[in-house]
Amino acid sequence: xxxxxxxxxxxxxxxxxxxxxxxxxxxxxxxxxxxxxxxxxxxxxxxxxxxxxxxxxxxxxxxxxxxxxxxxxxxxxxxxxxxxxxxxxxxxxxxxxxxxxxxxxxxxxxxxxxxxxxxxxxxxxxxxxxxxxxxxxxxxxxxxxxxxxxxxxxxxxxxxxxxxxxxxxxxxxxxxxxxxxxxxxxxxxxxxxxxxxxxxxxxxxxxxxxxxxxxxxxxxxxxxxxxxxxxxxxxxxxxxxxxxxxxxxxxxxxxxxxxxxxxxxxxxxxxxxxxxxxxxxxxxxxxxxxxxxxxxxxxxxxxxxxxxxxxxxxxxxxxxxxxxxxxxxxxxxxxxxxxxxxxxxxxxxxxxxxxxxxxxxxxxxxxxxxxxxxxxxxxxxxxxxxxxxxxxxxxxxxxxxxxxxxxxxxxxxxxxxxxxxxxxxxxx
Length: 428
Hints:
CATH architecture of the largest domain: 2-Layer Sandwich
CATH superfamily of the largest domain: ATP-grasp fold, B domain
CATH class of the largest domain: Alpha Beta
Distance between the termini: 46 Å
Helix content: 25-40%
Strand content: 25-35%
Number of strands: 24
Structural class: alpha+beta
Shape: globular
Largest sheet: 5 strands, parallel
């Protein structure tokens, strides 16, 4: 099969790497790719955010299936363009992608469909937002979210009214996240533990993939600013079969059915970020693609051929397809540039990649890297995800950190506690 993977991060590296391990040999192209993806796919430069450019490449390559990694091309209608011109693509249409591109839409949609989530209010001006805060209807801490896409960083958990007001100003007045902060969603803070659930859907049916847990904060102990994710593990020990059935019945399927009923049929990866509360699982957020860094730990757990499963979802014919899962857990540690998620420098020479890959059970997925002559250098805030398998979480954590410690570049940093929650949850 001729496959085109769109994107340039560690999620896309994991996709290309996993597709290259199907029993059937595929011709895989990744656009624009990065320095690490070159080992699994042919890399072609393209603007992933330009639907016409992506389509032109798929035409030129005669791709049997295009798989979109990041959210931006989906929110710009790349799936609509491919559908109108008769070429197969896995990913939701623009209207369905609003489930991620507008938190206000997502919250209102969940309210219409009876999907459990936190109480909320959408605010279209700073004056309205400050007035909502003044009522103290949500108490403190309170969660403030920029409505639009903000690369996973447009969420503030404010401990008091002063910090909440400062967050409103940063988003709506100073426009820290640009137009994404023109509206905000204020919602109650939910107590519990987080888990991520992924479904591959053809618009009617769903195949559930391994669960995971992300680590959003920059520093150990879930401290510091929100990032795009500093590491993950899979599966989540908090989600047993009974809990997964409940999530399917109360969240995943109502969303898929509700989207279809509203003329927004959803085909592709549906990510549900959940809070497991005393009242049951509730939605924190939706993504309309695989998460990052969750994809890096989830995709290696999938057994059997992946490409036919993706093709059937894109074509609307999942039927009785299922997903076989490998037993051993995975842990992924993100190695980031100093200063991330704020300002950071690039162009730092990376060493130790080969040594890291020599650790048993370790694979290194590239995120922000590029080639410069004979060197591989940093080209982003999140640079690499070092993923390890283990017979249990403890071994997977040990291997992931052994691999990560063999990698070096000026200013590299990582959290030191990725996976410890899984070890504690399974202790005894």
